[in-house]
Design brief:
mainly alpha; 0% strand
Amino acid sequence: MDTTKPLEPIPPLRKGQWNSYSPADIKRWGVQRFLDEVCEKEPIQIPDLGFTEEENQRMDQILKEEREATANGL
């Protein structure tokens, strides 16, 4: 006689929608099982946003200047 209960199903993530799970549910399901079932197995591919090389260089320069200003306390 099998006395183990079947595992409670974990609702899947819905692409393009806000998804939330309560910490109590995750704890009940088991963190590792939750991560195994819900998380992506492969890296997420970031789509090409269509920026030119010049725009990418300008953004890199702006980010560098912001990091330096933050490091200098400005």
